[in-house]
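Lab meeting, item 3. Inverse folding demo.
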């Protein structure tokens, strides 16, 4: 049976709460198909996620993102997204790209970060497959290796470099426009989903970056209330 609802898991960080809500707004207002949101909030996970915070983590969801297949009951497909993103098109276009040959699908970035520190002074780590895991289409049944125990005990590179798969042939490639890295890549009008990977426009030092005006406009629409005339 065809999966009718797009399940979207979004990393939630208490240092950038507004990011989650604006991303959800940008998806909702453009989607032509039903969507369902699950914020991955550490305090909501009970005893599921027990690993200690790593000094190199720039967000609270650096590792908990890999619980997405488990939280989906290893059924159907789910999307994981970092919160510091903005959807600029109908997510149905992404949903149509699902390919059962793969266990996971993502943008296969090949770049060296231009900066040494990210938002709030976090170290900009450099490693192979960097940012692949910031936007993933999970074919959940083929990701059963991602048990809570494995997510809690595996190394960061095992998780972020997809070592939980038998080989890289199980990783499908999405067009770069689905995880378009602001500041790392030049402005593109056709970017479908932009990723403020260095820091979102809600941080003062990034408020004039590419696509920031669109983000602020989405924030205003998120806050909309129709008052009594």
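The presenter then showed the designed sequence:
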């Amino acid at each position: 049976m065809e999966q009718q609802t797009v399940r979207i898991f979004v990393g939630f960080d208490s240092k950038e709460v507004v990011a989650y809500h604006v991303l959800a707004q940008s998806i909702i207002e453009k989607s032509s198909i039903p969507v369902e949101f699950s914020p991955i909030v550490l305090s909501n996970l009970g005893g599921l996620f027990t690993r200690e915070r790593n000094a190199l983590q720039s967000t609270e969801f650096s590792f908990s993102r890999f619980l997405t297949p488990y939280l989906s009951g290893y059924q159907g497909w789910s999307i994981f997204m970092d919160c510091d993103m903005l959807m600029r098109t109908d997510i149905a276009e992404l949903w149509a790209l699902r390919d059962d040959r793969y266990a996971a699908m993502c943008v296969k970035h090949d770049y060296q970060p231009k900066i040494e520190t990210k938002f709030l002074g976090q170290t900009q780590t450099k490693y192979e497959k960097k940012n692949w895991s910031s936007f993933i289409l999970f074919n959940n049944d083929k990701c059963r290796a991602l048990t809570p125990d494995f997510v809690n005990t595996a190394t960061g590179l095992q998780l972020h470099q997809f070592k939980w798969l038998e080989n890289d042939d199980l990783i499908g490639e999405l067009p770069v426009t689905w995880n378009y890295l602001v500041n790392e890549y030049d402005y593109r009008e056709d970017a479908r989903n932009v990723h403020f990977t260095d820091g979102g426009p809600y941080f003062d030092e990034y408020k004039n970056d590419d696509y920031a005006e669109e983000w602020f406009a989405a924030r205003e629409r998120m806050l909309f209330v129709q008052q009594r005339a």
